[in-house]
Amino acid sequence: MAATPAMAMPQTTAPTVQDPAASLPPQTEEAADDIVVTGIRASIATSAAQKRDAIGVLDAISSEDLGKFPDANVAESLQRIPGVAIDRSNGEGQSVTVRGLGPQFNTVLFNGRSFASDNFNRAFSFDLIPAELISGAQVYKSSQASLQGGGIGATINIQTPRPLDLKEFKGIVSAKALYEKNSEKFTPQLFGLLSNTFADGRLGLLASLSYQKRIASIDSVTNGGYLPNTTVGPNAAPLFRNVYAPRNQDVGNARDVRTRLGATLVAQYEASDTLTFTVDGLYNKFKSDSTTRALGSWFEPSQYTAATIDGNRTITSLTTSGNADFISSGAVRETTTWEAGGNVEWNPTDEFKMVLDATWSRAKNAGGGKSYFAVIGSPSQYSFTQAENGGIGSTSGYGTGVLSNPALGRTHIAGVNGNDITEKVTEYRWNNEWKPENTLFKAFRFGVARTSRNKNNVPITSADDVGCVYCGYPTLADPSLLSSFTMDGLGAKSGSVPLTFLTFDPRRYLDFLTSAAATSALDRAQGLAAGTTAARYARVNGYAATPQPSARVRETVYASYADFDFEADVGAMPLFVNVGARYEYTELSSFGQQRQLVDLTPTGGNPPTDPTIYVGVFASPAGVAISRESSYSNFLPAANVRLNLTPKLQVRVAAYKTLTRPAIGDLAPTFNTDTLRPATLSASGGNTELKPYRANNADLSVEWYPTPTTTLSAAVFFKKVDDFIVQTFAAESIPIANAGNAQGVRLPVGGLITQRGGQFFGEFSVRRPRNAESLEIKGLELNVVHTLDWLPGVLSGFGVQANATFVSTNRDFDVNQIGQSFAAEGIGNSQNATVFYEKYGISARIAYNRRERFLRQLAGGSGNEPIFVRDYGQFDGSVAVNVTPALQVFVEGTNLFNAKYFTTGRFDNQLLTYQNFGPRYDAGVRFSF
User: Fold this and answer.
1) pTM (2 decimals)?
2) Strand (E) positions, 788-905?
3) Does residue 36 have a pLDDT over 60?
4) Which of 125, 592, 706, 787 is least surrounded, with the fewest CB atoms within 10 Å of its CB?
């Protein structure tokens, strides 16, 4: 694999991604006479040829051989490209950011086609696709008229191999064992591919199959957020006012069992020299089943008994009375993806080509009703001290036996949740290319396309009114449910937390809560008539998960385009110019069910058993159906210019307009209550009238290819993004009845509960997306690749790849401004460096990837405060030895030195997340025939 260019002689054009069957750029006569190389050097040369010959600004990665990508998935390989950074899920690359613009700003194509994904937004989940199924990927950083719209950051095309391109019989089988250091578990990774041609090379068939399993163990410390402008201590005698108060601290371990099964099938038939048919399909089944056992410490501001603050008015230590929470939670992501496509390429003359392409894909995350969150707590006093010196926050001072005695455990929150998210994509494209000979005008391309997306989000949860039946720890839990759990250790530089605490089986706990013994005990504790709680559960079938109000968005894009290629000489320097435009018309239909909040009540009891939480009451479980329709159109011109100053040195200039459509979830006509607590009443909703982000872009790059495996390049870019969608917060007063709980206890007026003219209100902070702002992004990308072929003997096998990206914006976040409504997210510098060796049948590399601190989310967590990701750098490595021409053995390592992942709040000492993924290693064999 290579993420950088190398050299071949200039071509007039490169294949566009509109042709899924397009092969890599052809070799020139000079290149054909060279000695054929394989492995890393071949990958570098292939990627470079695509970059150098491309119409616009492009970077590419290529597999070193069929089924041989060095990284766990495509995202981890893409991060080696200048300007590309990734976000990880449990230590594994999941989504990509390009030039500071996050996953939702990047269009991802699969063999040139739009592709379904399992998110209720526009981000593509790269962890769904096994890397072995991929032959290469191109990152189009400047736009072309022929490219599908939607990528202000970039358009990323993922390619799979085609049998007629391979031309002859190929077979690959690989097997490896993956070892996770944290979980101390071995799991299998298997891959096989067969490809052959028949009928004198006119019929080709290819099939591949991949299976991967991983058992990850992630140790973590998390904080739900820092509450700004908060008063801490008793209401009658506050300790401090206007401070940043930590919401909580949870210490736990997540065990994530991941399985991934992928298969592809391709058939090609060259009916004649001018007509080729291709049909292909993909199946992928990905499942992540994560279970977390944690010790939670809740810091309710009004219950502080002691505290200290720093110069930023952040709480640095506190003592409080509450409950030691034993948390058992789980999350299931179970995605099945299908894709099928057909392609007809007709070349009636040497000058004209027509391509008809149709594709259908479907991705469904069947996670609804398969996740859960449950808590058993023990009353205790405890203390907290903030993180220092790159460590974690400390918690201590728990009461005797609190963390070890099952008899002290008391009932609390429990519920079942999860979402079924389904996306279906159909796309039809008609593309044409005419290349007249011996004229200034070299090519004319035109075409039309129709792309339809239909996305559904169905929450499947237990009923609203059972989640908080036991809120406030009103009764004792069955001691037999609880058992001791010990974490191996967090690996933090500083900070001390309990590593041994109680845990429980959540399914047994749910059964206990609905049992006759538990419901009767709750009736007695809250002074209810016998059978009241049992009847409450009977009405909703206990904790059975059922579909809740859902949202659906249907989007259809009609597109047409035309562009031209021109070639001329400026003096003795060849000049290539591509100009064109794309017109897109978008129709949007949004459907949803919205529930009306009619009341907030205390938890049961007199006094209420849990003063830190409110219970929401809704007018109807099903909600009211809402639908909206809208449309918009965009004209997107693009120009790409390439000037060859010498045969090995070229300059590129590009100017173009791009768009990114709003996140699907933001378009849904929904309203959701998020947090119902005395210190935080928050809600969120969609906006069906959102317009797309629109950007004016400019690029300038210089590329030098002195040898086929040496490249130096530098690029600057500028983007001005208008109609930026901002998640704004506004105060909304929602009328409530304040009817009180079953014991008649009502919410006192004060704080976020108000009364005007006899009507009670809950004062909510409501987050809604709105087109409101513009921002500018500018950056510099530096890239170098060099193989030390000029060194003598064994040293000539060494080579280096290195790049750095520097990005800035005019919309930085100001830590001193409270309630800032807009700042650019995801903007941060990144660096990559790889040293490799390839000679005498040995292939080895050590790679380092670093992403500097960046703003991940402007407003998140309990306090709607900013979330930053600290600098993160990771080393990966691999060694492979060719035992025979057909047999290779290898070892690989990811996160070799166990880099830790941190997120923080507004100030760097406000630690929100600490995660220890641990290193992982694999060893295996690869047989090719």
Assistant:
1) 0.88
2) 798-809, 830-839, 842-851, 854-860, 865-869, 872-882, 887-894, 901-904
3) no
4) 706
